Amino acid sequence: MKTTIIGAGHVGSTSAFLIATKEISDVFLIDIVEGLAKGTALDMMESSPILGFSSRIFGSDDLDDLEGSDIVVITAGFARKPGITRSDLLLKNAEIVGPLAGRIARLAPAAKVIVVTNPLDAMTHLTLQRSGFEPARVIGMSGALDSARFRYFISEELSVSPASVSAQVIASHSELMMPLSRLAAVSGTPLKDLLGQKEMDGLAERTKRGGAEVVSYLKTKSAFYAPAASVAQMVQMIAKDEKGLLSASVMLQGEYGIEGICLGVPIILGAAGVEKIVELDLNEEERYSLKLAADEVRQAVIELGATFQ
Description:
44% of the residues lie in helices and 20% in strands. By secondary structure, the protein is of the alpha/beta class. It is globular, with a radius of gyration of 19 Å.
């Protein structure tokens, strides 16, 4: 099993480290900055005698080294900084992700692709379009991270183990994400039986601002431990054919009444990629919120089409 991570920044390098230490697969870490991936990989491998893992991490500045990959993770791109609009970020990162998708299609035609670069849903759509892959093989890492944040905030509020909390976040990886408080539970007990509506609404809002809250403390960089853990979880589900349930951005083809757009929904993830899209029984308000998120992503896709046609 060969996993390639394109982008050796904080998210990419931490993802590589987690995948290797959990012995999910060997990892090729690639970055165009000369020496960055090689030095990072060497540093991580020097910890292997202490940590006791035997998976290998290879560093490279040559994209051709992704050839034959079973799984490719795209983390390369610019982060949003003060003064950079969402539209600017969309176009700047499309110039990176679009060509990468074509390169992956040529060198790793059987790969499953996990997209991490923001704006997540639009970049997932672009990767799918430029690679020509089947929709099941291109998955955006969105809901896995957002759901983890939601679960942690619930556990913190109730002083319970995070592992005991089940909760999903769907829709877009933006302020229009939808934490499903109504369906959340702690060891099978509905969250609404443990917290009042005001508290649940507060946790949902904190989840929507989860990335921004981390940035507010770090100042010059954004979150990377939780995103990397989300990547490692998804890689493991594919590599080990776990057929696990999690939220991710995938191409909808009529599910939830939405057609032809990538959006975060619950899926079963396994060796084939998206094994199944799970359709939750949403109420009218939730369906309306999902439609608003889909419209936002569709507008970004239209903007990309107008720019790069």
